[in-house]
Write a structure and sequence with these properties.
360 residues; alpha/beta; Aspartate Aminotransferase, domain 2; 2 domains
Length: 360
């Protein structure tokens, strides 16, 4: 049975070899039980967690003065956990607002802390990522918040914003798709289901001195980064299968050249699709300014919703799934995360050219 080209924005597709390993592990991990059944207090799982953190650090070049946490609740829980734990009475934070996900994060942060918008991309329809001189910070924000890849619109930061204030980044849709400047950040968080595996786990990378500024105890256990660090992300039963799958994805990333290897192939995949869009001479239009476009989420559109709908219908007939744009933006979107095969990008590029030739 052939598999479809899966362009969905998440949970993303997985490499076939990883899926086959998971099939075997569900049945038996070598101890007469499957990964879905093993205790998180067992020697097997304890070793898995040591290996997972060590490999995650090695691949990402994460310095020793950062803690790594594997948490539940997805990235969305971090929208409130970060300001709840890391701000104090009288603090405020700055946000660089580039669309849907910064809006949602600030909606939750506003329960805990006043927000200053150092940049607001609404005026440009969120098709622009600001340069450093377009960002106007307030005086002494507790931290600066931004979203590194805006999956709903298909825009991506090429480097972290430059500031002397602590920086918090949501990297849910581009983490480990290319090398990361960890040192530029005080805290990075990312849900796993785009580039790191399946839904159910969120990674938090946090610098020690930033963590030391957490709210003092007592606090609820699951809203206590220090307790989570002390318990190696296993304060309660962790998402065992999601963590196992992340380990398999990290193995796969290393087998394919690490983050440099991911960056090279991801650039190539995005270029194949974007070149096809350019070849239609305006029949399809990119979303996002050229210097702001994402490698992970390629947003584009035709001149009408009717043509967009016809394109999607034809794509599904060609065994291509998930090309409808975000519900708030409409249009079209091809998400090509780490595991998406280059052959699928070529198939989409061919279909884009053919659709424009027939309908143009």
């Amino acid at each position: 049975m052939s598999r479809a080209w899966n362009f969905v924005a998440g949970p993303a597709g997985l490499p076939e070899e990883v899926l086959h390993r998971a099939q075997e592990a569900i049945w038996d991990i070598g101890m007469g039980a499957g990964i879905l059944e093993v205790s998180h207090r067992s020697a097997f799982f304890d070793q898995l967690m040591y290996d997972l953190e060590a490999q995650f650090r090695r691949i990402g070049g994460i310095p020793d003065d950062y803690d790594v946490l594997f948490l539940q609740g997805g990235a969305t829980l971090q929208f409130c956990q970060i300001p709840a734990e890391l701000t104090h009475p009288g603090d405020h934070i700055d946000c660089i607002h580039t669309g849907f996900w910064t809006r949602n994060a600030m909606r939750d942060a506003a329960f805990y802390v006043p927000i200053h918008y150092a940049y607001d991309g609404a005026a440009t329809g969120f098709e622009h990522i600001p340069s450093d001189d377009e960002i106007h910070y307030s005086e002494n924000p507790r931290y600066v918040y931004y979203c590194a890849n805006n999956s709903f619109m298909g825009t991506e930061w090429q480097h972290a914003p430059k500031t002397d204030y602590p920086i918090v980044a949501d990297m849910s849709s581009n983490i480990y798709s290319r090398p990361i400047d960890v040192r530029a950040h005080s805290l990075i968080f990312a849900s796993a289901q785009k580039n790191l595996g399946i839904a159910g786990c969120c990674v938090v990378i946090v610098r020690h001195d930033f963590l030391e500024a957490c709210q003092p105890d007592p606090r609820p256990s699951m809203f206590n980064y220090r307790r989570l660090v002390e318990n190696r992300s296993m304060l309660n039963t962790p998402p065992t299968f999601a963590l196992y799958m992340m380990k398999q994805m990290l193995d796969w990333i290393e087998e394919h050249g690490g983050l440099e290897g991911m960056a090279a192939i991801n650039r190539q995949k995005a270029a194949i699709i974007r070149d096809a869009i350019d070849d239609t001479h305006g029949f399809f239009r990119h979303v996002g300014e050229p210097q702001c476009r994402s490698m992970m989420n390629i947003s584009f559109r035709t001149a009408s919703k009717e043509l967009d709908d016809a394109f999607i219908e034809g794509a599904e007939a060609h065994n291509m799934l998930g090309l409808r744009g975000h519900r708030e933006t409409g249009g079209l979107r091809a998400s090509v995360f780490n595991a998406f095969p280059i052959e699928g990008c070529r198939a989409l590029a061919e279909y884009i050219r053919e659709f424009a030739r027939v309908r143009g």
